[in-house]
Amino acid sequence: MAASPAPVRNWAGNLTYSSPRIHHPDGLDELSALVQDSPRIRALGSGHSFNGVADSGHDLVRLDALPREIEVDPAASTVTVSAGTRYAELAAELHRQGFALGNLASLPHISVAGSCATGTHGSGDGQQCLSAAVRGIELIGPDGRPEWLRRGDDAFPGAVVALGALGIVTRLTLEVEPDFQVSQRVRLDVPLDGVADRFDDVFGAAYSVSLFTDWNSDTGRVWLKHREGRPQGTWGGGRPATGPEHPVPGAPTDPATEQLGVAGPWFERLPHFRSEFQPSAGEELQSEFYLPRAAAPEAFAALRRIGGLIAPVLHISEVRTVRADDLWLSPAYGRDSVAFHFTWHRNPEAVAPVLAAVEERLAPLDARPHWGKLSGLPPEEVVASYPRAGDFAALLERFDPAGKFRNPFVDALFPRG
Ligand SMILES: Cc1cc2nc3c(=O)[nH]c(=O)nc-3n(C[C@H](O)[C@H](O)[C@H](O)COP(=O)(O)OP(=O)(O)OC[C@H]3O[C@@H](n4cnc5c(N)ncnc54)[C@H](O)[C@@H]3O)c2cc1C
Predict the structure, then answer these.
(1) Lower CB count within 10 Å: N or C terminus of the chain?
(2) Average pLDDT of the residues in 6-19
(3) In angstroms, what is the span from residue 49 Cα to ligand 1's centroid?
(4) What is the mean pLDDT of residues 24-28?
């Protein structure tokens, strides 16, 4: 079995995994034996998280050498996919076969298992986080044996967004739908007052809507992703962009997906970034907070009050909407949500006090931090926002009594009894 020499860093380069070894098993038997023999092990996806959620301290395993599987079941409207597959690869194959996923994140480079483990989301009033499309997962437990959990099983709602803490996910079954087309338009100079006042109109104006701003100016830019064949909202604030835009103003637009209303395949429009380019700003850190949707106007006001503090360390901030789901650790659990995202400069010292100021304003609005991004909110405060956290803690004990899949990130949230 191949093993990467340590140290290995995450995508952003702000974190060096503390594991001395990263294994790349090339078969499921090898993976099972590895899990069985290791005292502590975790899976690493594509390494796009900004915090220690994936770290192990002992063994880390990457599933990139396992045989790739993308098996569509047209009758069931599902695809079963190997866990390490990246959305870009899955989307292209689904499109080739005439199918689609209902939602994607802003970039397609991330792995399916890693994204689902953290409740990764895109945007859209009707769209849930990507994990909500999961119908089943195959999980290797501490004894090295695989087990399928399917929607309807009692543990299932706790096992999809599970921070890698219940075992190594090897395959997932996801819902698919018929292939569809999306066209994307950007509106510039949109007054933030108008967005806060007409939040439902703005975010209901298309299948997927994102607002970009720095909170220090009075305006933002709204990206509208319209699903062809679906009704469009009537909102049209600001002015239409007449050329391609990047989410970060002034950045080269080549990495951004096609705009100006040209319809094309769903997977080439729903993400902001093309799969063949480096996504986002590059030299960056990220934080994100999910709030109850109704708190949007209050959060807008609070962030605008400290816009002068935020903007100097910010590449860009993005506001998106996420529909409620029933996955216990999903940040959209039980509530339609608005997510406030921050792409920071890669300068942890300068960002830390600003992040603290943001959290001070958003925490009273019941903010839930993105599991894969930077936050200084106390773990006990975070857990208190999840009504089913106690059930998840019980699941941890049931699936992994010896703590083989735990790490400091999980221990801080769910201390061992
Ligand atoms: C440029 C950029 C843009 C982003 N855009 C978005 C966005 O639009 N929306 C959003 O919500 N997030 C976004 N993120 C965050 C990102 O989606 C999450 O951090 C996601 O978890 C990354 O997936 P990954 O495969 O890299 O996971 P990793 O960071 O590798 O791992 C995350 C977690 O998944 C677990 N895991 C991975 N594989 C397995 C497995 N096989 N079995 C069990 N557990 C596993 C790990 O143990 C860890 O706990 C972005 C990140 C970057 C860098």
Answers:
(1) C
(2) 90
(3) 5
(4) 95
Residue 51 near residue 14 (C-beta atoms within 8 A):
no
Q: Give 378's DSSP letter.
A: -
Give the position, in ligand 1's atom list, of the atom nearest the Cα of 169. Answer: 42
Closest CA to ligand 1's atom 11: 120
Q: Which domains does the chain have, with CATH numbers?
A: 70-178 (3.30.465.10), 181-379 (3.30.70.2520)
Distance CA 194, CA 202 (A): 9
Query: Tokens 């930077």 sit at which residue?
Result: 374
Q: Say yes or no: CB of residue 168 within 6 Å of ligand 1.
A: yes
Task: Give residue 170's pLDDT band: very low, low, confident or very high (50, 70, 90).
Answer: very high
Instruction: Show the DSSP H helices in 160-243 as ranges.
Output: 192-197, 199-203
Q: Which of 49, 161, 374, 410 to mutate to test the pocket of ligand 1 (most atoms within 8 A of CB)?
A: 49
Q: Kindly state the average pLDDT of the residues 279-291.
A: 86
As a whole number of angstroms, the distance between CA 63 and CA 54 comes to 13
Q: Is the peptide bond before 142 cis (omega within 30 degrees of 0)?
A: no
- Spacing, Cα 165 to ligand 1 middle (Å): 14
Q: How far apart are CA 221 and CA 393, in angstroms?
A: 41
Residue where the block lists tokens 């998106």:
320
368 pocket-lining for ligand 1 (C-beta < 6 Å): no
Q: What single-letter amino acid sits at 140?
A: I
Distance of alpha carbon 313 from alpha carbon 1, whole angstroms? 43
Provide the pLDDT confidence category of residue 417 given band limits of 50, 70 and 90: confident
Give the residue carrying structure tokens 């949007």. Answer: 296
The alpha carbons of the chain give a radius of gyration, in whole angstroms, of: 20
What is the whole-number distance in angstroms between the Cα of residue 230 and the centre of ligand 1? 30
Query: In whole angstroms, what separates CA 345 from the centre of its chain?
Result: 20
Q: Which atom of ligand 1 is nearest to the CA of 42?
A: 47
CA dist., res. 333 & res. 162, Å (int)? 13
Rounded distance from Cα 235 to ligand 1 centre (Å): 33
Structure tokens at 92: 């292209």
Average pLDDT of every residue of the chain:
96
Q: How far is the CA of 308 from the centre of ligand 1 (A)?
A: 30
